[in-house]
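During the reporting period, our protein records have gained a structure token line. One record among many is quoted in full directly below:
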Amino acid sequence: MKATIAFQQYKNSKILTASPAELTLMLYDGCIKFCNMAVMAINAKDYPAANQNIRKAERIIGEFQMTLDHKYEVAKDFDNIYDYVLRRLHEANVAKDTEILGECITHMRSLRDTWKEVMKQTGQYSMPEAAQA
């Protein structure tokens, strides 16, 4: 029980001390994680869990859309991508379709990897300590 509390405190601290760029990366990772969890739930025929995880992924994408700065032309492109992924997530949820979820995961990984590359090029990303060993 104490280990669980300590881990939760660590996670909260990590979020509270993260830069905006790191928070964005965490959100991409979270969206991918929830989509993967939905795939596992569908495969286990646990449709309520699948629905819950897809809805979490949808909320993350909604957050991305709300924070787009539309004074930049690229925001429109991101908005279109997010709209498409949201539509596909909805379709996956209705049909409980793991193939559609796989497509969404691919899109979100691509966005996450691009974001990570931007962070590296601007000096905002460093490898986690465990990966440096």
